[in-house]
Amino acid sequence: MQHTLDLLLQGFSKIQAQHTQSTLGDRSQYIGMSDIGKAVDCMRMAVADKAFPQKTHTMQGENALEHHLWFQRGHWFEQGITEALRATGVPLLSQLAIHARHGSVPIQAHLDLVMVPAPDQVHIVEVKSCETLPENAYAAHEMQVFGQAGLLYSCWGKPLFFGGSHTSKQGVTFPALVQHLLGIALPAKVQEVSITAEILAVSMKKVRIFGPYTPNKLMLGAAQNIATELWQHVQAVKAGHTPLATLPTAQGWHPLCEYCQWNADCPRFAGISMPELEQELLELQELKAERDTLVQRIQQREQRLKGIHKASGLGAEWIQTQTRRFKALHCEGKVSLDKEKLASALAEMLPEQTIESILLHAQKMGAPYQRLMVGTVN
Hints:
Elements: H1 2-24, E1 31-32, H2 33-41, H3 43-51, H4 64-87, E2 92-102, E3 105-118, E4 121-129, H5 139-154, E5 161-162, H6 174-182, E6 194-202, E7 207-213, H7 217-238, H8 278-312, E8 319-320, E9 325-326, H9 339-346, H10 352-362
Helix pairs in contact: 1-4, 2-3, 2-5, 2-7, 3-7, 5-7
């Protein structure tokens, strides 16, 4: 069994390296929109990924396979969504690349999907794989799509576009690329076209769309400024002028810190070393895993028994076994206060400031407590 897992890890590492090279090229030679998104979350991680790209394909340790599965899952989702959209007949480009510059900084945008539903409409879709769908779009993802839409708009008539069967090293304009690949004649002037973008967040069970986003000069400028700062940091780190430890890190709790390849010596986790507690933490992790498995098994068993009772047609009557009895009981939902509805009702009688004051005084805060935070050192 372990031999198979080792082979999987080895294979995923090679696939990731090959995919990066074939679709993104030498990422050390430019700043990508995803790099800009990373820098929004954590400049230190973004700089380390660019300055030491060889480590991204040699990750070891407990989270290595999970990291590669997360990486591959994104590509699997993207491939499936592309096939589904193509099946509808909508004119579609995949993996469109824009090679631009901001001053001396080379910037590239790789767009997952670009739909051209009409000669005056272009729609960008950025696919994001998620364990659980967020209620709101992540700032890093929004910065990425704002940058994509902004570059598409600002580079429209410039020979900076690559994609599809157009494999020439010389770029073409976006209208020329669309004409060549889709046979659609787009206006030469970008002002005559509606450009929109959205984030398609996908989990194993659900899909959520964020947007639409439109080209925004201020947001494109912000993305370009981050790219410049990131590029300068990368060059300084590679030259040995700037230590990684001096760069800004993510603030507060961040879900990706657990999977970051650079978290072993990250300054935000500064503390003391007590290796003798390793087994204690491993056992705690195993207990939590057992608990989660038990909760799932209990839920499955309860669902089965409720189904048996429903199928029996007994209504409110019991089913008796040898030493136990059971039935599926209908329960009313929990009662809770809808603050938005209350505020809306009070708005007809009271000023807004008074309503806010009432709701604030009605809040109840629980007692402070301690929470054990456990993370993996990669």
